[in-house]
Amino acid sequence: MSDKGILIVISGPSGAGKGTICAELRKQMPNLVYSVSMTTRQPRVGEEEGISYFFRDVDTFEKLIKEDAFLEYAKVYDNYYGTPKEHVMNLLEEGKSVILEIDIQGAMKVKESYSDAVFIYVVPPSLDVLTSRLHGRGTDDKEVIHKRLSLACSELALAHRYDYIVVNDDLEDAIERTASILRAETCKISRNKEKIQYIYKRYSNEQQENH
């Protein structure tokens, strides 16, 4: 009596805290797994095939594009990155729920082919807070931070296409709200058809036994 897992698409501007939220959700929910992306870039030290990424050459990747083998893909700095459809679907069929932490363009591509996914947009409470977080990380120069802030504003205009928005003004609260969304989604009638059939059959049998 195993229903399919849920595909969870999480997006948000750099510095929103979505990576931290996803990591905490996985600690709370053992059935939650990350999707493994495919890329044409070379493996870095310590990266493992099938765990860090699926590493493929350009010809293989482009052949898979023609075969519609990706839920979404993009070319970034001369390298392809994509979410293999078969890998994700196999995990869902096994009853595992899968997190895709991708940008808004990729999320909209997923929505076109898998509208049953749960789309969550994570955002800081204000641009000032986001600016402070990006400067606090100390990983980007001023020009990169400016580009990230501009992108955050333009992406927020598309946030209405998501199912939920989580404002990360307090990390623990944001984690709990996101977890609550996932718990509610697992209880949807549309996601529990096999359970309903099982319970109905059990109730019917008990009713017959009691008469």
Q: What this model shows, in words?
A:
- This protein is α/β, with parallel strands linked by helices.
- The chain has a domain at 7-35 and 97-209: P-loop containing nucleotide triphosphate hydrolases (Rossmann fold), CATH 3.40.50.
- The protein has 8 helices and 9 strands.
- Strands 2-7-1-8-9 form a 5-stranded parallel sheet, sandwiched between helices. Strands 4-3-6-5 form a 4-stranded mixed sheet.
- Strand 5 (70-76) and strand 6 (79-84) form a beta hairpin.
- The radius of gyration is 20 Å and the shape is globular.
- The protein starts with 6 loop residues before the first strand and ends with a helix.
- 26% of the residues are buried.
Count of extended strands = 9
Task: Describe the main β-sheet briefly.
Answer: 5 strands, parallel
The topology string of helices and strands comes to EHEEEHEEHEHEHHEHH
Kindly provide the radius of gyration, computed on alpha-carbon positions and rounded to a whole number of angstroms.
20 Å
Low-pLDDT residue intervals, each spanning 5 or more residues: none
Examine the secondary-structure arrangement and name the CATH architecture of the domain at 7-35 and 97-209.
3-Layer(aba) Sandwich
Q: Helices and strands: which structural class?
A: alpha/beta
Summarize model confidence as the mean pLDDT.
Answer: 89
How would the global form be characterised? globular
CATH top level of the domain at 7-35 and 97-209 is: Alpha Beta
Q: What share of residues are in beta strands?
A: 15-25%
How far apart are the first and last residues' alpha carbons, in Å? 27 Å
- Could you tell me the CATH topology label of the domain at 7-35 and 97-209: Rossmann fold
Spatial arrangement of strands, main beta sheet: 2-7-1-8-9
Number of separate helices: 8
**Could you estimate the helical fraction of the residues in percent?**
40-55%
* Relevant CATH superfamily of the domain at 7-35 and 97-209: P-loop containing nucleotide triphosphate hydrolases
